[in-house]
Amino acid sequence: MGVSIGELLEPKETSLEAISGKIVAIDAHNTLYQFLSIIRQPDGTPLKDSSGRITSHLSGLIYRTSNILEKGIRPIFVFDGKPSELKTAVIKARSERRVEARRRWEEAKVLFPEEALKYAKASTRIDATIIEDAKTLLSYLGIPSVQAKAEGEAQAAYMVQKGDADLVASQDYDSLLFGAPLMIRNLSAPRGRAKPEVIALIDLKEQHGITREELVDLAILIGTDFNPGIKGIGAKRALKLIKEYHSIERLIAASQIEAIENYERVRALFLHPEVNESYELHWGRVDEGKVKEFLCGEHDFSEERVTTALEKITRHRTTSSQRSIEQWF
User: Fold this and answer.
1) Does the residue 242 lie in any domain?
2) Are residues 231 and 93 part of one domain?
3) pTM of the entire structure?
4) What angle separates helix 128-141 from helix 28-38, to the nearest 10 degrees?
5) Which of 318, 309, 315, 320 is nearest to 166 (CA)?
6) Per-residue model confidence as pLDDT tens digits over 49-105
7) Are residues 171 and 213 in the same domain?
8) CATH number for the domain including 103?
9) What span, in angstroms and rounded, lies between the C-alpha atoms of 295 and 97?
10) Which residues are within 8 A (CB) of 82 and not within 5 positions of it... i.e. 6 or more apart?
């Protein structure tokens, strides 16, 4: 879900062509969740092969990723590591919501078919098999993946800070809290659904006159994946409080808020996240034989459609652009 700071942002609409030649660190978990949620039958049933194995995520990876590769964009998929214990409550709550959504989905398929897709999307979950399938396909496509120690968005933000990538791609805004200078949303959205948009951290800070540290404290007031926040405080009120008092400590000292449990740990998690510093990045050649064996032979994909996707990838693999990333700052 991420932190709810969208109303404080002013994204700039862009296009895939505008970021051609750029390296994008993709929040893999977030993107796979999108594929699994959206790529479904009208009644909400995910795509499956003849053995009953879910393939919606593989469909998204081959067909949507081929679209961005065709534009000369170089993706890196960053996978989540072990979640912080501070996220336990959120993970438990999400699991309970998925179970309830699945129950409602099964009921809706019989009684309220027009609502079935809504509940099906809410029941989406990612398991170890889905992650391993995704990594396998990416390796056959020659696309690098990086295993984070903890949060994938923290790892992706670190890679942009280090200069190994140009942007973080995610639907959530947490990468900004982790210090990503630049992020892009809707990178893998279906054509016509939503246009890509970029957000620069420096624009956010300058627009509201706050530091990154203050942005993190603002997020803690609202609530993050690691703390519940304060009831009744939304983004605009949190911004007003932080601009006046500048930190949670001063807010507490002025009796503007009550103590927030673990806020110092949450702050440190965003400002000094645990990251993998020893990753390697290598864009290899597409192994068309293995891609077809994996998708068509094992998972019943259309060979014609897979061949078309592979042609797009190989034909435009080296496409690049001279446009500077500085245009967004």
Assistant:
1) yes
2) no
3) 0.91
4) 100
5) 320
6) 999 999 999 999 999 999 999 899 999 999 999 999 888 888 888 889 889 998 888
7) no
8) 3.40.50.1010
9) 31
10) 149, 150
Query: Whose structure tokens read 């990468």?
Result: 175
Give the Cα separation of 181 and 183 in Å (integer). Answer: 7
**Residue ranges making up the domain that contains 102:** 1-205
89 Cβ contact partners less than 8 Å away, ≥ 6 residues apart: 228
Tokens of 247: 């930190």
| Residue found by looking up tokens 């259309």 in the block | 302
Number of domains in the chain: 2
Question: pLDDT for 143-199, tens place per residue?
Answer: 999 999 999 999 999 999 999 999 999 999 999 999 999 999 999 887 667 899 999
Structure tokens at 27: 């929040």
**Residue 109, C-beta contacts closer than 8 angstroms, at least 6 positions apart:** 43, 44, 116
* Whether 109 and 147 share a structural domain: yes
Choosing from 178, 205, 232, the residue where a domain stops is: 205
Q: Are residues 37 and 107 in the same domain?
A: yes
Instruction: Tell me which of 149, 176, 205 is where a domain ends.
Output: 205
- Asked if residue 58 is part of any domain, the answer here is yes
Distances (CA, A) of 187 to 126, 142, 266: 20, 19, 28
Q: Are 174 and 90 in contact (CB under 8 A)?
A: no
